[in-house]
Design goal:
DC1; repeat; 238 residues; alpha+beta; DC1 domain-containing protein; C1-like_sf; four-stranded antiparallel beta sheet; globular
Length: 238
């Protein structure tokens, strides 16, 4: 069965990896496991979850605007810094061009809660920036410093200060978390939170991803023009 992906010019075929075969996903630059989408002509490969990822999502970390899946960064540098983990990226990303929010695809689909062998309790994802402390805070798994600007997993049990990097907590992705492309007749959305971790059920939209992205760019241009006009107006008054 052939599969057409928006990021590649040729049809892809679903392929089951054989023992010992090693391929790298072009969507996230991580090693491929199990089943992949493949173009053998171009040696182009995608994880099944990268190939099936929604073109846009309403993500609980950025509820103001939908995030649009882009095959390459929208910046002149050709790269982005992930708002979730702080690491650079140069391939697939979920972005909000209006707010300059960028997420690795696998960061966008991190599970809301996980269990880790190094801790007795379940740990929950936290999207919110934390207050800068007088002394650095360190990951309880790798012992390296935790950035207050990036996501982390934490223990919600009273008196437990266990907190770790997202990439130390898990490599699991759950691409079905925010998938909903169908119009919602009720026009409402629901969300549930556990303190500062969100498990968000998005409000659906009938607009296509391309229309959403075009509208965002238009709003961004309008905002930039308004700022420039304001600067000109202020300079003439001086």
């Amino acid at each position: 069965m052939e599969y057409k992906h928006f990021s590649h010019q040729h049809p892809l075929t679903l392929y089951k990896l054989q023992p010992g075969q090693q391929f790298q996903c072009h969507g996230c630059h991580l090693p491929c496991h199990n089943s992949i989408f493949a173009c053998w002509v171009c040696s182009f490969f995608l994880h099944d979850h990268c190939g099936n990822a929604n073109r846009y999502v309403k993500h609980p970390s950025h509820t103001m605007h939908p995030l649009v899946l882009m095959p390459s960064p929208t910046y002149c540098s050709g790269s982005f810094l992930c708002n979730a983990c702080g690491a650079p990226g140069s391939t697939f990303s979920y972005c909000c061009p209006l707010c300059e929010v960028d997420l690795h695809l696998h960061c966008a689909y991190l599970p809301p809660k996980v269990s880790h062998k190094s801790h007795n309790h379940e740990i929950y994802i936290s999207f919110r920036p934390r207050d800068q402390k007088d002394s650095p805070e360190y990951c309880n798994i790798c012992r390296k410093e935790l950035s207050c600007r990036h996501w982390s997993y934490y223990c919600a049990e009273s008196g437990c200060d266990f907190r770790v990097h997202t990439y130390c907590a898990t490599s699991e992705v759950k691409p079905g978390l925010y998938q909903d492309d169908q119009p919602d007749d009720s026009g409402t959305s629901t969300s549930s939170t556990n303190q500062n971790n969100c498990v968000y059920e998005p409000q659906a939209s009938a607009a296509t991803p391309e229309e959403v992205l075009a509208e965002m760019f238009q709003l961004q241009m309008q905002l930039q023009m308004a700022q420039q006009l304001n600067q000109i107006f202020n300079s003439t008054r001086m």
